[in-house]
Amino acid sequence: MPKHEPVLLKNMLQPGYTGSLADYERAGGYQALRTVLGKIPPAEVTHMVIKSGLRGRGGAGFPTGVKWGFLPKDYTGPKYLCCNADESEPGTFKDRQLMERDPHQVLEGIAIACYAIGVETAYIYIRGEFALGAKILEAAIREARAAGYLGTNVLGTGRTMNVWVHRGAGAYICGEETALLESLEGKRGLPRVKPPFPATHGLYNKPTVVNNVETLANLPHIITRGPDWFASIGSPPKSAGTRIFCVSGHVKRPGNYEVPMGITCRELIFEQAGGMRSDKPLKAFIPGGASAPFLTPDHLDVKLDFESVAQAGSMLGSGGVTVMEEGTDMVWAALRLTEFFYHESCGKCSPCREGSSWLVQTLRRIVAGQGRMQDLETLTDLCQNIAGRTVCAFGDAEVSPILSTLKYWRHEYEALIRAAEADGPTELLMPTAARH
Amino acid sequence: MLKEKYKAEIDEILSRYPVRRSALLPLLYLAQQEEGYVSEPAMKEIASILRLTPPQVYETVTFYTMFNLKPIGRFHIQVCKSLMCALVGSDPLIGWLEAKLDVKPGDTTKDGLFTLSKVECLGACGTGPMMQINSDYYERLTEEKVDRILADLKRDGTSTLKSGPFMWPEPAQRA
C-alpha cells in the first residue's frame, strides 16, 4: 500500500510515545510556539494560516485563517477561543485519539491560535462522555503551565493564555458552534440565529473563534514547516493538508488513518482499512459522518477532498467513513440514523423537532412491514420541508440518510411496502415514537 | 450540602468563568458525583450558588442526557445502538446483556448493581460494539468479554478491560 507521511499522528505512531510533555518536547514540541511568540507578528501568523489553505476539520470546512480574520480589528475588550472537542458526529473518532494520545499537540495549536487572535482565555469544550480525554487534557494543561507554555507570562513574554477544559453532558447539537457557546454559558444547547456570527457576538456576546481539535493540531506544523509545505499536501488549493479519516463498519481494519486529502475512497477503504471484512462486496458507504448522504460502489473512485465529494452529491464532513457490505438493509440503516437525529433534535425549530418524529414513525412503519406506497411521498415531502428551514445545519443533515437511500435503493423501500400491501390488513397502524 | 463539602472546588470552578452561570454543568457533575444523580435539593442549592432560579437549573439539567434525575444502579451500563455499532453487532450484544442481567433497557437489576441503557453514538465507531460503564469505555466487545467485565465489576468494583488512552489501530497492528 502506498505510504503516506503522517503529520498529526506521527508522534503517537512511535513505539513507546506516551504523550507526556517530555515526550512531546523530545519530538520537537512547542518549538512552533517559541517561533511565533514575539518573533512573528500575530497578523503574520494569521496570514500564514490563510496561505496554507487550512480548512476546518470539524465538518463545515471553513478556511481557518479567514475565520480568524473576521474578528473585529480595533477591539480591545475580552475575546475567546473555543476548541470544539464535542466530537459527536456518528462515525467520527479522531479528536479523541488526538487528545488522549498527544494532548500537547492540541494545546500548542491552541496557544498559537490564542497568540494569533490575541486571546487570553480559551475553553476546550469536550463531549461529556470523554471523561478520560478531559482528565488527560487537564493533566497536560498543568504540565504546560508549569513549564511556562500556558498561564500568565507565557515563555517570559508577559502574555496570558489560560486554557480550561469544559465538559459537555451528552448532546450532539453542542458540536454546532453556537449551541456550543450556549452550552458553555450554562444553558440548554440551542443553536443561535446567525447573523450575528460568533466572530463578533460569540461567548458572553464577545468576539469568539470556534475551531475543531484537528484544525488546531495542524497549526504547529504549519508554523514549523511553513505554509507552502502544507499547501503542497493533498488536493491544493481547496483541500490542502492531511485528514484523519475514521473508518468504521464492515471493513477488515477499522480505525483512524491519516492520509493526504484527495486519495480515493477506494484507496482508503481497500488499502488503508484492509478492504471488506468478508467476501461480501461493498454495497454502500457514508464518506463524512452521519450527516453526509450515502454513496454507492460507483463512487469508490471519488477523491476524498471537499470539492470532489460534494460533486458526487455528498460531503466530506467530519471525515467519518462508514462502510456497509452487501446484505445490509438500507431502509433499516436509514432508520437507525434517523432515530439518532430524532433523539438529538434540540427542539428549537418546529420543522426539525416535529419532522424528525414523523420521519421515524413513517420509517418504523415501513420496516415493521406495515408501510404503504404513499409513505414514500410523505417521507420526501417531510424531508423537503425540514432541509433549509431550520436555524442550524442539523435540518439538512437529518434528511440526508433518507433522501440518499431513497435515491439509490428506492427498490428496497418499495419491496418492503409491496410485501406489506400483499399481506393486508388495510388498516394503517401508526406506531408512536416515544422520545427517550 | 455541596457548599460546605466542596467549597474550595466550587470556588476554583467559579474562577474559570467571567459569568457565574457557565459553572452550571461542572456543578451538576459535582452533584451527580456526590449522590449518583442530580436531586432536587442539589438543583436548588446550585441555583442559589449561581444566582439562578431553580427552573433555570431544571430546564438545563433535563436537556442533557448524562444527568440522571433519579437514583440508578452502582454501575450504569450504556450500550451504543447507533448505526456504526449496529453494523458490527450491538443489537445482539444488548440482547445478551438483557438476558445476563435479566433487565430491559432503562431498568436496574434487583440487587441495585447494574442499570442498563441503550444510547446513541458515543464516538467510538471504529471499535464497536462498545459500551460505557460509569466513566469508562469498553470497546471491541464480544459476549465473552462482556461476561468478564460484569464479573470483574461485581467482584472488584472495576475492570482492567476498560479502555486506556485511545488509538486504533495500535501502531503494531498497522500494515
Task: Set out the fold topology.
The complex is a heterodimer of chains A (436) and B (175).
Chain A (H helix, E strand, L loop, with lengths): L20 H6 L4 H6 L5 H11 L11 H6 L10 E6 L8 H8 L1 H15 L3 E6 L4 H16 L15 E6 L9 H8 L23 E5 H5 L1 H7 L1 H5 L2 E2 L3 E2 L1 E8 L5 E6 L4 H8 L9 E5 L19 H6 L8 E6 L4 H15 L5 H18 L6 H13 L7 H30 L13
Parallel strand pairs in A: 1-2, 1-4, 2-3, 7-10
Antiparallel strand pairs in A: 5-6, 7-8, 9-10
Helix pairs in contact in A: 3-6, 5-6, 14-15, 14-17, 15-16, 15-17, 16-17
Chain B lengths: L1 H4 L1 H9 L8 H12 L4 H11 L3 H8 L13 E6 L2 H5 L2 H12 L12 E6 L11 E3 L2 E3 L4 H14 L19
Parallel strand pairs in B: 1-2
Antiparallel strand pairs in B: 1-3, 3-4
Helix pairs in contact in B: 3-4, 4-5
The gist of it:
The complex is a heterodimer of chains A (about 425) and B (about 180). Chain A contains 17 helices and ten strands.
